[in-house]
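Here is an idea for our session: we take a single protein and study its fold together. To get us started, please write out a protein record for me. Start from the sequence, derive the backbone structure tokens from it, and show both lines together. Go ahead whenever you are ready, and we will take it from there:
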Amino acid sequence: MTGSLVPGSVYIEMTGNGRLEYGGMTQEANGHFVVLDGDDAGHVAGYPIIMDVADPGRVLGLTATVCLHRRDRFPALLTRPMLLDDRGRGRFYGWMPVSLHKLSVQPNRPALTTGALPVIRVRRISYARLAAIIAINAPLAAFRALRLLLVGNVKGFEYRFARFYDALNAPSYPAWIKAMSETAPSGPAFPPARDVGPRVLVTIVGADPSQVASTRRSVTQQTYPHVQEVPAEEAYASGVKTKEAAYWMRLPAGMLLDKAAIAHLMQPLIADPMLAAAYCDEDRIDTRGWHFQPFFKPAWNPPLAETGWLAPDGALIRLDALKDLTDLAGTASGLLLIEASRHGQIAHVPRVLLHRSVARLPAQPSRPKTPRLETKVSVIIPTRDRADLLSVCLHGLFNETRADDLDVIVIDNESREPETEALFERYAADRRLRRIPMPGPFNFSKACNLGVAQARYELTLLLNNDVNPIEPGWLDQMVAELNDPRAGAAGAFLLFPDGYAQHAGVTLGSGSVARHSFHFRHPRAGEDCGLMAQRQEMSAVTGACLLTRQSLWQRVGGMNEEQLAVAFNDVDYCLRLREIGKAILWTPHARLIHRESVSRGGDNTPEKLARFANEERYMHERWGDALRNDPFYNPNLSLTAADWTLSAVPSNLSARLPSLQSSFPNNAAG
């Protein structure tokens, strides 16, 4: 900011409208500094803005929260984290909600000093300026967005551009490390006596003497007092054969521990002695001590551990959870935790506590599962006219899908077009297809409930009428996922016709309630951390192609027809499955084309917007805690910007479990 700026003032600049000064910034009783309110907020509602903060008095502290207050929406308040530098300066990029009625800034921690109120300048920018900002600050992102535009995917271009703009708030990793070191607690304290508390036995594996020495040095500097280095075979004898409560960690030579690493990992294990292990996040470190390439991991995810994608080196494992495994030194870290998980849950501590001097081994893509000998599935397809889509969908099921028997139930919501009648006439004699009428307004939940009630088979597939297969074995792979008795539902890899990802699972909390993971990213573009090639557990999958069991559907009450007629009913169903202990699995080996609700249209009328707002409210009232803590998405990452973008401030540093209740509430500060 330049010019003569008055402390405690807000300056607002609209495209072509000049500058307006507001004297005497107000601070509310809750600590919020009001930036824009009422009509002033309305001037930027629905537009991208830049907000510059100058806080030389450090009233805001090191971090702040930008608060977007919405009218007639739930939650009424959206928050975005913001970092300030050593001089108290910061910049926020954001697309304002259409329903914005107030913009405020809240300090996240007590002020470091007392002084003059900050000066804030808000600029509403044009779309041309926005494009220029992204092109200058993130040229690769701009190129990727333009590629979507070049293939005619206008919706994808707009979506990615908005996410890229939000991603400009992401700090550099060194800046993030500095902020974390100054704002996050250093670690829990433990009694210093050597005879109090569980023992931790550490085995260092590797032949390079200098790397072994550096790793050993980091072990000896641990703040947790009960640590001893031992060979792997001695660790097993000490912990298992003597029945002594002990934990074991295997460290590759060259991997360094943060001083509080073992203390942080021990905290959830002491809080719940039935846990089998705990692991943490990591990064790379070079010979100069510079940190780079952070690896922010999800909560325990067995399919990712099997392929080595989730490589939890440096995990702290309860030794008696390895009773069936004697080769501790030679077993891959992921397999060590898979064995431990048979004897207790695995906790994830979302802190960067390990530092690798060499890159971890690359993960292998997951392999397709061995299909069952017999595949009998009932398929539920809600539809209203659009015979062009439904005919392709039915042809894909009957002619391009390997299955022993399909029971296809089309729920017809008042189709009237002659082309639709002609299509049903063509299938009139086919015993595999049944048409069930559903009069009244469109209600996806009601259609699915009606269809499942008529299903002949236990395995039941929800399928949109705008989905068709790419390869014949897709259904085999989804059925194979449900061979796992833990599985409650399986989802598929859905692609737009241009090859970009439409659905690779669902991330809770993104986009207020939930958003498709890696939406509009190309599987071969290298911007998915390799996850679009991996089978994995998720919190939810889309109902556009969801396989479940009829018995489970009935057990949890099916879909919610009253509160969730159109949106979020699939997320709600998956969360209710997880509530009874069932896992949601996503596989990249079931690939289909999805045209994303082209038959239903957009939610752009006042009636549809009001309905969506009510569905959004219900989800937050029913699942608020779960939406804020998706265990399969790291809390150090942004839920606003593009997937796997670093957040300025982590949302929660508690240890996490993959279950629906995924964190330890009393561990948040530790």
